[in-house]
């Protein structure tokens, strides 16, 4: 409980001195002192949410790892041009909050409960055969001989599934999108029709988010809905196509002096956490990805920070968790903004998808655009490079439900773009992406689209 109180105080102190949007842009993020300076705390961010309940974020609009803010009627500002009419909404989001990918190798001291979540997977055949919708009901047989050994985790979850809290957040996300972009601005149609484009990755997490968000948008819809996915092996999101150069570029980025410096300043922290979680191998020690993933999954779903499986008196402290989160933010800024290979890395990771987005934006300025509203459900590893391509001023880890709304407006025959990141006008090295000719935005993104991705990946 002391840990929780500490987090809330730390958020409140910063919130008093900066506006919600400021919590997205820590000025010192390029420097490793951002990681080690414990007085920064969470930089006004929130890292806790209740189990199995909706999480609203408080105050609304701050960087909230568990439930990032999204566009809502109450905070939304209309463009100053009174003649402007919204003609296309290109929306993309990370899935909502979830269980972890990375269980503590030494054993998880708290069981993770997913018994209120039904993860569906079943098949039916158009016109030929219907089927009973089936969901996975995960259980453990106590007679299973593997159950006694570490790192067995007594759980009803299939990791990294969405949680009930994440589903509820997704439904609210959808309701708010409908109120703004449907009821008020009229770009989301009343029912799912040929002007709507919905796509996810092949990961169940993104499909589970799509089901919740679309239910929030169209609550009276009944029946199944096609969710587009590119075929396995060539998917342009979620690193879905083979690319050796992508991994070798990442290796080069992780070999920089700056990256090594961030490992040096965190050597004691990593050793202490390695001991508590039994996490001493390089998967856990070479970046903060796994520690961060494990801690946020607990804190964002009503659990405590972990303790050592074999010694309940040795627990991860709130101060250690905050340093992990700051180190994670530093890494994201390093990967996608602050290294010499960032442009190449973005091209290799996300360039094809960025090209698809540009295509839809350009089509929206002609009569050729079929889709008024495109919504893609993706991952942090997709949002990061896209934010990097926009030139976001500072990049904290794109957290649960992070979203980018690219709005295309028409006014007196000209087309303008505006870009919101988690409901706020995005701050970038090109200035605020508030109102600009569509071509100006396209020119910002275009250098990130590879001319020959196959050759570049095999180079
Ligand atoms: C630590 O961060 C605080 C702001 O939270 C700042 O005032 C102080 O200068 C920083 N200290 C160092 C050594 O960077
Ligand atoms: C797992 O947890 C459940 C619920 O707490 C408990 O009833 C069950 O006995 C546990 N199973 C094992 C194998 O520890
Ligand atoms: C951090 O680094 C990026 C990329 O090198 C740069 O664009 C940005 O201005 C830097 N931010 C600060 C506050 O120095």
Topology of helices and strands:
Blueprint: H1 2-17, H2 33-36, E1 85-94, E2 119-120, E3 135-136, H3 164-184, E4 196-200, H4 204-217, H5 244-253, H6 257-264, H7 267-277, H8 282-285, H9 289-299, E5 307-308, E6 311-315, H10 318-336, H11 342-363, E7 373-378, H12 380-390, E8 403-411, E9 414-421, E10 424-425, E11 427-428, E12 431-432, E13 436-437, H13 438-445, H14 453-458
Parallel strand pairs: 1-7, 4-7
Antiparallel strand pairs: 1-8, 2-3, 5-6, 8-9, 9-10, 9-13, 11-12
Helix pairs in contact: 3-4, 5-11, 9-10, 11-12, 11-13
The protein binds 2-acetamido-2-deoxy-beta-D-glucopyranose (NAG) (3 copies).
One 2-acetamido-2-deoxy-beta-D-glucopyranose binds at residues 27, 30, 337-338, 429.
Strand content range = 5-15%
Molecules bound to protein:
2-acetamido-2-deoxy-beta-D-glucopyranose
- List the helices and strands in order: HHEEEHEHHHHHHEEHHEHEEEEEEHH
Overall mean pLDDT stands at 94
Shape: globular
**How many independent structural domains?**
1
Question: What structural category do the secondary elements indicate?
Answer: alpha+beta
Given this structure, which CATH class is correct? Alpha Beta
CATH topology category name: Rossmann fold
The CATH fourth-level homologous superfamily: Phosphoglycerate mutase-like
Q: How many separate helices?
A: 14
Radius of gyration: 22 Å
Largest sheet: 7 strands, mixed
Helix content: 25-40%
Secondary structure: number of strands: 13
Low-confidence stretches: 1-10
CATH architecture: 3-Layer(aba) Sandwich
Distance between the termini: 53 Å
């Amino acid at each position: 409980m002391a840990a929780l109180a500490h987090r809330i105080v730390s958020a409140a102190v910063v919130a008093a001195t900066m506006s919600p949007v400021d919590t997205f842009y820590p000025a010192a993020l390029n420097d490793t002192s951002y990681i080690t300076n414990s007085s920064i705390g969470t930089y006004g961010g929130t890292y806790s949410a209740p189990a199995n309940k909706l999480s609203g974020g408080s105050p609304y609009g701050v960087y909230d790892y568990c439930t990032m803010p999204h566009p809502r009627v109450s905070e939304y500002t209309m463009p100053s041009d009174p003649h402007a009419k919204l003609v296309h909404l290109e929306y993309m989001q990370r899935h909502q909050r979830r269980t972890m990918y990375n269980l503590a190798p030494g054993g998880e001291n708290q069981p993770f409960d997913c018994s209120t979540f039904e993860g569906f997977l079943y098949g039916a055949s158009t016109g030929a055969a219907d089927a009973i919708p089936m969901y996975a009901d995960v259980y453990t047989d106590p007679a299973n001989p593997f159950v006694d050994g570490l790192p067995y985790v007594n759980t009803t979850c299939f990791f990294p599934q969405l949680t009930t809290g994440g589903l509820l957040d997704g439904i609210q996300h959808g309701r708010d999108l409908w109120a703004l972009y449907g009821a008020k601005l009229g770009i989301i149609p009343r029912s799912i029709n040929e002007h709507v484009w919905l796509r996810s990755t092949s990961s169940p997490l993104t499909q589970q988010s799509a089901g919740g968000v679309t239910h929030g948008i169209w609550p009276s819809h009944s029946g199944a809905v096609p969710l587009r996915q590119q075929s396995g092996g060539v998917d342009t999101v979620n690193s879905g196509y083979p690319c050796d150069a992508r991994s070798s570029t990442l290796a080069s980025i992780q070999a920089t002096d700056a990256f090594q410096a961030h490992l040096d300043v965190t050597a004691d922290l990593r050793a202490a956490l390695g001991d508590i979680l039994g996490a001493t191998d390089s998967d856990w020690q070479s970046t903060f990805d796994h520690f961060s993933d494990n801690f946020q999954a607990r804190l964002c779903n009503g659990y405590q920070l972990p303790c050592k499986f074999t010694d309940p008196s040795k627990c991860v402290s709130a101060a250690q968790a905050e340093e992990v989160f700051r180190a994670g933010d530093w890494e994201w800024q390093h990967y996608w903004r602050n290294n010499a290979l960032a442009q190449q890395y973005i091209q290799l990771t996300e360039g094809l998808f960025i090209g698809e987005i540009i295509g839809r934006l350009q089509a929206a300025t002609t009569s050729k655009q079929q889709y008024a509203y495109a919504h893609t459900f993706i991952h942090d590893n997709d949002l990061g490079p896209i934010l990097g391509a926009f030139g976001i001023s500072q990049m904290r880890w794109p957290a649960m439900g992070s979203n980018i709304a690219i709005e295309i407006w028409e006014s007196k025959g000209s087309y303008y773009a505006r870009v919101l990141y988690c409901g706020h006008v995005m701050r970038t090295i090109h200035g605020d992406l508030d109102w600009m000719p569509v071509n100006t935005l396209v020119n910002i993104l275009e250098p990130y689209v590879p001319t020959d991705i196959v050759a570049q990946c095999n180079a």
